Structure formats: structure tokens, C-alpha cells
Amino acid sequence: MRTSRLTLIYLVWATINSLAQSTEPNTNLVDLINPLMGTASKPSLSTGNTYPSISLPWGMNCWMPQTGKMGDGWAYTYDADKLRGFKQTHQPSPWINDYGQFAIMPITGKIRFNEDERASWFSHKSEIAKPYYYKVYLADHDVITEISPTERAAALRFTFPETEEAHVVIDALDKGSSIKIIPGENKIIGYTTKNSGGVPANFKNYFIIKFNKPFANTATWHGKELALKDFEQTADHVGAVISFKTKKGEQVYAQVASSFISPEQAERNLAEIGNDSFDVVKDKAKAIWNKELSRVSAEGGTDDQLRTFYSCLYRTMLFPRKFYELDANKKVVHYSPYNGEVLPGYMFTDNGFWDTFRAAFPLLNLLQPTMNAHIMEGLANAYKESGFLPEWASPGHRDCMVGSNSASIIADAYLKGIRTGYDINTLYDAILKNTQTEGPLSSVGRKGASYYNRLGYVPYDVKINENAARTLEYAYDDFTIYQLAKELKRPQSEIDLFAKRSQNYRNLFDPGTKLMRGKNENGTFQALFNPFKWGDAFTEGNSWHYTWSVFHDVQGLVDLMGGRKEFTKMLDSVFVVPPVFDDSYYGFVIHEIREMQIMNMGNYAHGNQPIQHMIYLYNYAGQPWKSQYWLREVMNRMYQPTPDGYCGDEDNGQTSAWYVFSAMGFYPVCPGTDQYVLGAPLFKKVALKLENGKTVAINAPGNNAQNRYVKTLTVNGKPYSPNWLSHKGLMQGATLDFQMTNNPDTQRGTKVSDFPYSLSSAKP
């Protein structure tokens, strides 16, 4: 009896202690992140198309283990058996590929510098991947490699066995490279020019590597030839091999940095490490990540939900990448990827606005406004240096995707109060230029601008691909220009012009099918219309996906469809119709189609961006409980903190930002307005520490797997019925208290006065 009482006392104590521990904020959020989430991908099926980015938030350089061959966009895939090296990378997407890259590989035994011959078997069981630290055992060489980053440099540590043949291979890669060994300084310098486009003729990435141990032997190589006596090589493909004699467990420490400006600047960037040991670099990197992640504190979910949330938050803080450096006077300067000059000011790159205008940039406006102000200055610099805004930059203009969504990004930042540190008038001039002309690439300016401005749409039959998608995105972008023009007090005629153009989406609505449809120059709709046909008039989607791309005037779309009943019926149909498709435009099943097909959610294609906001549109028609249901379904079924954790391309933080917003309980359906549309929170508690010192507390103590529906919401202690939240209100600090239930509340949020903003119903 005494034993059972002691046991009971112990269990009570343990329970109380456990509860007390669970209420304390987690200060080590970075270790919840799985950088391998989304890496089990391939060209035919993306589960993220990510790689483990070992970097600091928005770091100029990041590092990754390399499983793929030189030049392969799928540089790290989870199912690979061998590592070929450890690569400095700037790759934003496997489809865009890499630039400014070189690789380092420790080996033992006979010198082997060819990427296949030097490769080593490895296992995920002996791999540790964190944003601030990577470690792996190379079985064929009996070497442990560790990496930890700074913004423009990295610390690498190699633990060798006892051998007289310990080597480190430096591969400057092909397409033009140079390398020089300086034995007296334990140093290697060089440059790589390897890129995938979007660079000026003088593009180089200069690198420097310093070791803490003298070289026992050295060699350089070019192509397939090893040169034992040469310290320097410049050719199409060069590299170096340095050798050591090591004791068992001996650690060789290498400090690495690079610069797009000069060799001298590369050495200056190496000062980010200075005299720090590897472990100090690692600890500093970990602290930086925890500081940034702590802006969002989530509690009261499952372990997998928390790991998914912070893994997604990590992905939102990798792009756009810093493309600037600090000169000898600590001034911000950048090598221009547009004109090849070294110029003052900020520059950012590696971003596709077609993806990221939707949620990734709005998340910056909420949590990182100072960072986004720097990005806005970078956009102004890109315009001044190239004549156009960069719709897809890596590092300069790339011909990829459609739209001119820089307008959305710029307008949303300014309208949400980010107004210092950049010249909004320069950016507005750049936006206006976009509306008037085509650019040197189809993704720059507006392809079909003259047709759009004259007819109100880009015609289907004038040999401009994906014309309906362009029309719908231009109309939304015109709305954001209209909003910005009003705020800047531009001439009324200009304001009226963009207000009118924002209604151009109406020109593509087919009342017979209640869907968007390509239209010919003579005003007739395209013939042989198949709403399940991907591509053609649309971009990586079909009419069922793009019909909802009226972010700014959902009420207008409701009216076109015949009212709220028909509108919600069409929304329901997306999940009801089978995942059929027509791939004839491409001639094969593109991976985005396959990802939709296998998710068992009808024609809802969350793996690509055009439809990601659609679930929130039930709020505009008085059925918010359907948003709440489907949002939880998507979060539960399409996101996991695992190598196959996404349901399509992650895309520079956009698909991750969707999860971060949705898990918090709201989403920016229409950037360029002050509103976030409500969903339902995933966690029991989320606290946002805003940059201005205010806090947003999101409380849902009754949240669990069954209770996915909102019963009541109070904001700052007062009952709140609207289906939206104000950005301005959140920035003043707010407490949101959700009462959750397991049954949909079909009365809450049903009044027209509760609906989010639509241009058609907005007050003048």
C-alpha cells in the first residue's frame, strides 16, 4: 500500500513537472527544423525539390552536401547513396540551377579528384543536418565532415584517420575556373565562373580557403590531368589537392569564404570567422537562427506539427538571398548581376515573384519589415542597373514564369507601412514601365502589354503562351498599382486607369462554364475548351486552378458566377471532380500534374501556387467553416517534417509561408490590402513578437485533432465576427482568443458585413 502511494505521489509530481516544462517557451527552436524536408525529390515528382541549406538567414552563401553530378540541379536527393563533395551553392531551384559554386571533398588513400572516383558511400544514420550545422561520415574514406556557416563564409572541419594519405580536393568546376595554392600561408585562392544564366560577361565568384595545418604535399589539376609540381591552374575545369599526414582522430580546420567582387573582398569576408574555432562559429550560427525563429513562438501541437512549422519557417528565411557585401569601410556594396559593376547599396536575388508575392513577402512585411525595406532598396537598384524590375532573378534576370508581380510586392510593403530606406518613387516609375512595355525576356515587363492595354486581355490566338494567366495576373497587379497610386496621390486619371484595368479579369469569364477561358483577339472565346487542360492559356495549371485568381475582387467573381450559392458550389467542385487532366500542351505529364493526381483531393493542386489561396475564398461567401475544414486537411495530409514532406515544389519559401500563415490561423489572400483572411489556428498558442515591440497572442486552448472549427473569436477581449483581421490592428499588438469545436458553426461569419475586402463591394 505504501509503495502504491509513493508511486501515485511520484506520478502526480511527474505530471505537474511535465506540465510546467511544457508551458515554458522553447528557446532552442532551430533544432526542431529538418533541413532534409522535401529532399526526396526527382524531376518527375517533387516532394519539395529542396536541398539541406546550411546557412544563416538570407545568407549570401550557403553550403550543402552534394549527391548529384556537377551541374545537376538535383544536387542533393535523399535516396542517393554517395556524396561527391560539399558545395558552396546559391541555387534557388533545381529548375533554375546554380551559380557561384565550387566543391570541397576530403578523401584518404590514392589521390582521386574526379567526382565519381572521389565519391563516398554515406548513410542518413550517420548524418546530422541542422540549419547551422551539418555532419556526415564518409565511409569509403573514414572521414567525418562538419560544416557551419556565417553569412559569406563557412567553417569546415574534417576528422581523419591515422594515415599518410589524407587529402582535401578542391573542385572549382567547369565552364571556366582558376586556382592557386599558396603553401606558405596554408591557403588556396581561385574563382569559378560556372553559372546557369543571368550573369554579366565579367561574372566570377572568388573564393579563399585557409587551413590550420601546413600542407605535406600539393597538386593542381585541369580536366583529367594531375600536375604535381604546379601551384596554379586556369582553364575550363581546374582544381587542387592538398595532402596531410594525420593521426587518428586528428581534425583539420578550414575556413572558406567567397566574393562576387574581388579576391581581396573574399578575404575581407573571411573575417566573419576571424579567430573563431569551429565550435564558436557553430554556436554563433545557432544563436542567430534561434533569435530570428523566436519571433514566432508556437506551443500546443504535436511534435510533428511543431517540427513542420519551424521547418517551414526556416524555408521562408532563405530567400531572397543577400547579394551584397561590406567593403573595407564597412559600407554596403554589391556586384551588379545586371551590369557587372561594383556599386553602393543593397542587392538581393534568387527569387521568383510569381511564387512568392502570395505569402512569402507578406510574411516578411509582418515579421521582418526592416529586412523587406532593404529588399525594396535592392529592387530599386536592380531597376536602375537593368532598366526593369526582376520578376525572376538568379542572380540577374532569368526567363521564367509570367506576370509582373513585383507590383504586388512593392505595393504591399509600402501600404503596410514599410516606407523608409528606399525610394518609392523610383519603384513606382519601374512599376509603370512594366505596364507599358515588354522586356528583353518574356518574364520581364509585360509580355503582350500592347494587347492587354488595348483590349483588356492578352489574346489566345496571337502566339503568346499562357495568355489567360497573364491577363488575370496583370489585372490583379493593376489593382495593387491602383492602391499604391491612391496612397502616393498620383493624378486621378492614372488612379482611374488602374482601377478600370483591375476589372479586366471579367473579360475572360465564360458564363457558360463559370470558368476563366482564353479569348481570341476578335472577342470570341477559344474553341475546344477543356477546363482540365494544363498550360496552354494557363501557367502550370488549368482553368479550375486559375479561375480563382481574382484576389482583389472575389465578390465580383461571386457575382459573375451567379451568387454565393453557385460560387460555393464551384469551390466544392474543385474537391469533387476527379484528378483528371489533359497534358497535351506539354506532351508529357509534368510533375505538377502528377503531384495533384496522387494527393486524392480532386483537382485541388496545392503543390503549385495558383490555387493555394482558394480554400480561403469560402469566407467571402459566408461559409467559413469549409475553409476551416479543408485547411486542416491540407496541413495534415500535405505537410510533414520528412524528406517527402511537401506535395510539390517548395519554391523560395512560398509553399512554406502558406503553412506558417495557415497554422497561425490567417492568410494574405490579397496582398495590397490591409486584410488577412481567417482560417483556424493549428496550435493551442502562438505568440508573434513584432519588430516594433508589440506582441500578437493567438490562443486556442481547445485546439486538437477533432476541434478544427471556430466557435467564437474575441480580439482584445471583445467578440469579433468578421472573417478577416487587419494588418494595422495586428501591428498595434493584439490578443486573439479562439474557442474551437468539433462541429462546424454554420452561423458565424455568414453576414455580408463579415466578408473580407472585395473591390466591387468596397466603399468609395
From TrEMBL:
SUPFAM superfamilies: Six-hairpin glycosidases (SSF48208). NCBIfam families: aman2_put (TIGR01180). Monomer. The lineage of its organism: Bacteria, Pseudomonadati, Bacteroidota, Cytophagia, Cytophagales. GO terms for molecular function: carbohydrate binding; peptide-N4-(N-acetyl-beta-glucosaminyl)asparagine amidase activity. Residues 1-20 form the signal peptide. Keywords: Calcium, Signal. Its cofactor is Ca(2+). This is Alpha-1,2-mannosidase, putative. GO terms for biological process: carbohydrate metabolic process; glycoprotein catabolic process. Residues 265-741 form the Glycosyl hydrolase family domain. InterPro entries: 6-hairpin_glycosidase_sf, GH-type_carb-bd, GH92_a_mannosidase_put, GH92_N, Glyco_hydro_92, PNGase. Residues 741-764 are annotated as: Disordered. It comes from the Bacteria. Gene3D superfamilies: 2.70.98.10, alpha-1,2-mannosidase (1.20.1050.60), alpha-1,2-mannosidases domains (1.20.1610.10), GH92 mannosidase domain (3.30.2080.10). Residues 741-750 have a biased composition (Polar residues). PANTHER family: PEPTIDE N-GLYCANASE PNGASE -RELATED, PUTATIVE-RELATED. One of its GO terms (cellular component) is cytosol. The keyword Signal applies. The keyword Signal applies. Residues 33-259 form the Glycosyl hydrolase family 92 N-terminal domain.
